[in-house]
Amino acid sequence: MNTQSDPNRSSEGITPDALLHVGTEGPVTAEDIVLASGRDLNPKNLAWAEQKLATEGKAALDRLLP
């Protein structure tokens, strides 16, 4: 059993809120949009995601995340 403590985990083994992130804190890519939508990474879906990014900006990702 590993007795070293992991600063990224609480004592119950749950990741603390301060380490979790969602939404568009950083740059958004077409790949992010495809993966958030649950689609496969392929040229057709990447083109779809690039179009969404062009028209909606970062909000495209926010709309896909719960």
Topology:
Elements: H1 30-37, H2 43-56, H3 59-64
Helix pairs in contact: 1-2
Structural description of this entry:
With 66 residues, this protein is mainly alpha-helical. The chain has a domain at 24-64. Helices cover 42% and strands 0% of the residues. The protein has 3 helices and no strands. It has helices spanning 30-37, 43-56, 59-64. Helix 1 packs across helix 2 (43-56). The longest helix has 14 residues, at 43-56. The mean pLDDT is 79.
* SSE run: HHH
- Treating each run of at least 4 consecutive H or I residues as one helix, how many helices? 3
Report the radius of gyration as a whole number of Å: 17 Å
Low-confidence spans: none
Overall average pLDDT: 79
Strand content: under 5%
**Helicity level, as a percent range?**
40-55%
Give the overall shape, derived from the CA principal axes.
elongated
Whole-Å distance between the termini?
A: 36 Å
Class derived from helix and strand content: mainly alpha
Q: Main sheet, how many strands, which sense, barrel?
A: none
Jot down its keywords:
single chain; 66 residues; mainly alpha; 0% strand
Describe the structure concisely for a colleague.
The chain has a domain at 24-64.
